[in-house]
Amino acid sequence: MHRPPHVGPPTAIRPRAAVALALVLCPGLTLAHYPWMSPADYSPPAGQPVAFSIGVGHHFPGTDTIAGERLAAAELLDAAGQVRPVALGSGNEFLTPALPGEGPWVLAARIAPGYYSRTPQGGQRVSRAEAPDAMSCGHSSNTVKALLGAGDGAVAQPLGHPLEIVPLAGNPSTGAPFAVKALRAGVPWQGEINAVYAGFGGAEDQYPVKVVTDAEGLAKLEFDRPGRWMIKAYASEPYPDPATCDRSNFTATLTLVVR
Question: Which residues touch 197 (CB under 8 Å, ≥6 apart)?
Answer without folding.
Answer: 208, 223, 225, 227, 228, 229, 230, 258
